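[recover] target loaded
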């Protein structure tokens, strides 16, 4: 399940530095000039999950395989991107392809790092990106309304509903608001599904602060937190340069010393990756055996056959049943056999909704 979170922001806010830190499979060039990143870099990232390590301690498998998500480093947007400024059309197309947005915002002062937008102002920076995405969405909605008008003559109820939703989106965007705030569901969401609106994507903000504000934040990050809270979004406060330094350290002992020096308990990247995973509305279940202990990614609300399909499509087609142990029960009783003896192993059928943390074994026939 190759789900992607796109890292966006204005030029020189620390996007590529963050990508370099967060990615364990690709490195983006971080330079102090505009449009350093033209083609999007993609990196696959392990999702930190202490549950996986605890299961592995009990099972002692030959290998441990974490679940992953992909981060995409997208070039800096500028004012006018929706009209093609700064190669804007290409960059906006890159955003359209991702599942969620990680918006990096500069919350530090440094006269040595170029900035064309004037004094540091995270809210104004946020508004620039929001406005460009909204303008592009307006264009998409207006085009679909034109196509929909031709279908209105049929009198079809579904077409009428779709037009009503599109008109609602048009008004919302014209008022400078993001589509995700509408919280569309069911048929209403289907009405816009084919135009992949940019402001409909879930968003997570990264406040890139200076070293002094790493633990406490500063007036800039505080302002961003306030604005994000009002729209129901989360802010991760971190120093992207320090995070990049941490990833360069190979020995865990060196990392621990680094954490102690800066008063950290874990890399800020771990919080970012977990938050991005949650933002995508994902859940994790585990398989545990002597060959491997592995985490599998599913969408929240998936039933057992769907969850089985991420291992192999045949598992869904020939699904018979699932043997399920709750994570906490597995940790308490320390083995599958002990869970079975104590009545903690359940047999579930096709309608079972998989819970985050379930330890599962599937029975199937093809």
């Amino acid at each position: 399940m190759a789900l992607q979170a796109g890292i966006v922001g204005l030029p020189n806010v620390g996007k590529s530095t963050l990508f370099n830190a967060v990615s364990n499979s690709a490195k983006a060039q971080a330079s102090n000039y505009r449009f350093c990143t033209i083609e999007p870099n993609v990196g696959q990232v392990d999702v930190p999950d202490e549950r996986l390590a605890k299961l592995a301690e009990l099972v002692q498998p030959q290998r441990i395989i974490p679940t992953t998500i992909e981060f995409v480093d997208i070039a800096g947007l500028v004012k006018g991107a929706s009209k093609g400024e700064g190669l804007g059309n290409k960059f906006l197309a890159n955003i359209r392809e991702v599942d969620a947005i990680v918006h990096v915002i500069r919350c530090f002062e440094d006269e040595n790092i170029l900035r064309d937008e004037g004094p540091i102002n995270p809210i104004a920076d946020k508004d620039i990106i929001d406005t460009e995405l909204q303008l592009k969405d307006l264009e998409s909605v207006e085009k679909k309304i034109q196509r929909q008008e031709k279908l209105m003559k049929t009198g079809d109820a579904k077409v009428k509903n779709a037009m009503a939703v599109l008109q609602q989106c048009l008004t919302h965007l014209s008022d400078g608001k993001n589509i995700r705030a509408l919280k569309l569901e069911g048929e209403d969401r289907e009405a816009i599904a084919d135009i992949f609106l940019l402001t409909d994507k879930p968003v997570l903000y990264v406040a890139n602060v200076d070293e002094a504000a790493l633990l406490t934040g500063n007036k800039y990050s505080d302002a961003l937190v306030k604005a994000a809270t009002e729209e129901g979004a989360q802010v991760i406060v971190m120093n992207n340069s320090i995070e990049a330094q941490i990833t360069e350290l190979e020995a865990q002992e060196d990392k621990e010393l680094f954490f102690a020096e800066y008063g950290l308990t874990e890399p800020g990247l771990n919080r970012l990756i977990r938050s991005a995973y949650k933002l995508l509305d994902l859940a994790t279940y585990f398989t545990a055996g002597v060959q491997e202990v592995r985490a599998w990614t599913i969408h929240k609300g998936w039933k057992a056959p769907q969850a089985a399909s991420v291992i192999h499509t045949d598992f869904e087609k020939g699904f018979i049943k699932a043997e399920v142990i709750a994570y906490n029960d597995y940790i308490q009783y320390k083995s599958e056999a002990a869970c079975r003896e104590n009545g903690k192993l359940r047999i579930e059928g096709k309608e079972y909704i998989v819970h985050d943390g379930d330890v599962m074994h599937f029975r199937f026939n093809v």
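[recover] notes: The two ends are 23 Å apart (CA to CA).
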